[in-house]
Design goal:
Elements: E1 2-6, E2 22-29, E3 32-40, H1 45-48, H2 61-66, E4 72-75, H3 80-88, E5 92-95, H4 101-109
Parallel strand pairs: 1-4, 4-5
Antiparallel strand pairs: 1-2, 2-3
């Protein structure tokens, strides 16, 4: 299983999924980490602030395709639309209050990481 965790610095979880500078991608097997990589976020205009943040007609296709090999994505926040788009793409989004990448991974693998979908940013909803 691959788990992507939004992070600007590979230690702390990003506050907003679409604006993160990258994703720490863990490959796990039977609850053990077998590999780790960092994937820079070059797939959203949010990350480069070039999409005109208030343009509500953008799609999430590029970020979903870039994370297609992941079964789970973890962030401290995201818009309602991307949360739902990830679910529709069979990628489980998790919005957590945990701020440390390694702690979040451990908690997720132990089945203890709480998802807080009610904290989605409503201004991203259509």
């Amino acid at each position: 299983m691959k788990i992507a965790i939004a992070s600007d610095n590979q230690r702390d979880i990003s506050a907003h999924f679409g604006r993160t500078l990258g994703f720490v991608i863990y490959t796990t097997d039977n609850g053990k980490v077998v590999s780790r990589e960092y994937r820079e976020n070059t797939f959203t205009g949010h990350s480069t602030h070039s999409d005109g943040h208030h343009n509500m007609h953008h799609t999430h296709n590029s970020i979903i395709e870039a994370l297609r090999d992941c079964e789970v994505v973890i962030s401290n926040g995201m818009g309602r639309r991307i949360y739902e788009d990830l679910i529709n793409a069979n990628i489980r989004p998790v919005i957590t209050t945990e701020t440390n990448v390694e702690n979040a991974l451990t908690l997720y693998l132990e089945g203890k990481l709480r998802d807080n979908p009610e904290t989605c940013c409503p201004h991203h909803q259509h």
